[in-house]
Task: inverse folding
């Protein structure tokens, strides 16, 4: 093992520190902006020290309807992830435990849905929702987002199931355990952590999505990202509120991501890198 | 045998779902691309018009313009992210104490919703009041007007913004790659007295090739669909100089409501993305 010299350590830490600042600064600038009153936001030179106010948050979430949008985001993310769990987990288990003829095709289709431009999916869903008069419901958005979450769930859970040795299941079977029981009482508890990580990744995917959500939701069903551009107008952009909503959109995700840091590579590359 | 039935029945929901909810819409869009269809335009009721939409796309300067914008972005973003990502991954791979904290800071930008990233960019680049605009003015650098209101600065802003947004992702991929490399080649080359640079060039990079290809492929596919950031940063402007393919497709479909034509552009984009993936598969397979 190479000896790492003190000078190298010092330089490494310094550079990492600089990189961290570069990564964080724009984000922190928005956070600061969310706490600035109108005068402070548009001051020249821009202020780093100012007296903070929560007016932007109250204005957006209490006086305007952004709390509703927040709820919609939560509903959409949770529902599309729930569907992904119900449909994807059993599928991943089957794919992990046995080989069937269409498996390659299925995994290819899963990869395809990750590559397809969202507009291609948006069009047919939009047409369908108009024809079924479901425009102001969350149905279209939930179905569209499940196209994003199910493949992700399948890819990730399959690799987690792959880590459970078959011997454990065989041992339980010898003891007289039925297959369904093996699945629920022996295998699932072992991959619970993986299920949590996969679910969080699915929630993040749905939460951050804009295009499909904006096309397939109406005014009262809009999610948080969709509602933000409404604050940008030619008459006057409400930057304080934009920053406040932007912060609310991104802070939970940042926290969630910290929780699943270890599994990020798997999820974000669909198993292409292990 | 019970085992067989579990494997069969557990597969059914995924298959049904993939075919119905994913496969069917794509086929619908392909079908639509051969028709004249619109909710708003009169006379556009879904008549079959063969390849007319496709010929129209190939002759459409807006289409080629948007391809140009998209490819320009890809051309500048990916090399920058590879270099920066590799550099960051190299630093983190040393695994000094406290790396975990630094990495959670450095990985933050990629977790932010693309549309919020666009807003952060816009906040920094507003004419006069944005931090970056003010700083450039303070330094005496005159860009001849607002950053977002001119072709090249606007495009450059998008490129820089995406580099900020997704370099952590590339770094993460490369870090995972670095951590899974075998030790033997390094021991061998150290015996030969190679310098650090030689080690990287002759050992590290070739071993990382599959991951580099993956990174390039995934980022290219994502960049082909870039939309949210551009929407809030410039709306495609000035003019259509920052209009990506995805943005054009969106406008054609949901502003002009010319959905048959819009579908054809979407299909062309999809085919391009598929070709890119096939190409990268070929490149990786050549190695094995």
Result:
């Amino acid at each position: 093992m190479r000896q790492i010299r003190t000078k190298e350590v010092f330089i490494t830490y310094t550079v990492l520190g600089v990189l961290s600042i570069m990564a964080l600064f724009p984000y922190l600038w928005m956070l600061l902006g969310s706490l600035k009153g109108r005068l402070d936001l548009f001051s020249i030179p821009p202020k780093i020290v100012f007296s903070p106010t929560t007016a932007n948050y109250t204005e957006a979430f209490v006086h305007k309807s952004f709390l509703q949008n927040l709820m919609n985001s939560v509903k959409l993310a949770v529902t599309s992830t729930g569907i992904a769990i119900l449909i994807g987990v059993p599928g991943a288990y089957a794919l992990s435990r046995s080989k069937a003829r269409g498996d390659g095709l299925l995994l290819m289709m899963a990869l395809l849905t990750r590559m397809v431009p969202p507009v291609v999916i948006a069009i047919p869903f939009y047409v369908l929702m108009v024809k079924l008069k479901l425009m102001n419901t969350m149905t279209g958005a939930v179905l569209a987002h499940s196209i994003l979450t199910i493949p992700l769930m399948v890819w990730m859970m399959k690799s987690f199931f792959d880590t459970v040795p078959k011997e454990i299941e065989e041992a339980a079977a010898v003891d007289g355990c039925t297959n369904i029981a093996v699945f629920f009482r022996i295998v699932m508890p072992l991959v619970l952590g993986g299920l949590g990580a996969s679910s969080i990744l699915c929630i993040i995917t749905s939460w951050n999505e804009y295009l499909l959500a904006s096309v397939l939701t109406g005014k009262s069903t809009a999610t948080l990202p969709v509602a933000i551009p409404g604050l940008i107008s030619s008459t006057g952009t409400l930057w304080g509120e934009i920053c406040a909503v932007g912060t609310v959109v991104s802070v939970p995700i940042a926290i969630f991501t910290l929780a699943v840091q270890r599994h990020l590579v798997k999820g974000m590359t669909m198993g292409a890198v292990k | 045998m019970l085992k067989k039935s579990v494997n069969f029945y557990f597969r059914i929901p995924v298959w049904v779902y993939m075919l119905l909810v994913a496969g069917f819409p794509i086929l619908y869009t392909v079908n639509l691309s051969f028709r004249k269809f619109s909710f708003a335009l009169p006379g556009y009721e879904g008549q079959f018009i063969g390849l007319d939409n496709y010929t129209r796309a190939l002759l459409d300067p807006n289409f080629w313009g948007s391809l140009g914008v998209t490819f320009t972005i890809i051309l500048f973003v990916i090399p920058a992210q590879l270099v920066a990502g590799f550099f960051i991954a190299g630093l983190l791979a040393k695994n000094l104490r406290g790396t975990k904290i630094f990495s959670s800071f450095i990985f933050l930008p990629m977790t932010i919703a693309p549309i919020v990233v666009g807003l952060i960019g816009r906040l920094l680049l507003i004419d006069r009041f944005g931090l970056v605009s003010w700083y450039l003015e303070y330094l005496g650098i005159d860009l001849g007007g607002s950053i977002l209101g001119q072709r090249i600065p606007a495009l450059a802003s998008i490129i820089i913004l995406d580099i900020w947004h997704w370099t952590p992702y590339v770094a993460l991929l490369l870090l995972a790659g670095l951590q899974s490399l075998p030790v033997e080649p390094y021991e061998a080359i150290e015996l030969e007295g190679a310098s650090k640079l030689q080690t990287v060039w002759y050992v590290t990079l070739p071993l990382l090739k599959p991951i580099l290809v993956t990174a390039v492929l995934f980022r290219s596919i994502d960049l082909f669909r870039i939309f949210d950031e551009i929407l809030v940063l410039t709306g495609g402007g000035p003019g259509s100089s920052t209009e990506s393919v995805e943005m054009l497709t969106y406008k054609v479909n949901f502003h002009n409501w010319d959905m048959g034509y819009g579908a054809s552009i979407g299909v062309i984009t999809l085919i391009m993305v598929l070709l890119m993936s096939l190409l990268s598969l070929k490149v990786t397979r050549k190695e094995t």
Notes: Chain B touches chain A through 90 residues (CB under 8 Å). Chain B is about 75% helix and 0% strand. The two ends of chain B are 39 Å apart (CA to CA). The CA atoms of residues 84 and 208 of chain B lie 15 Å apart.
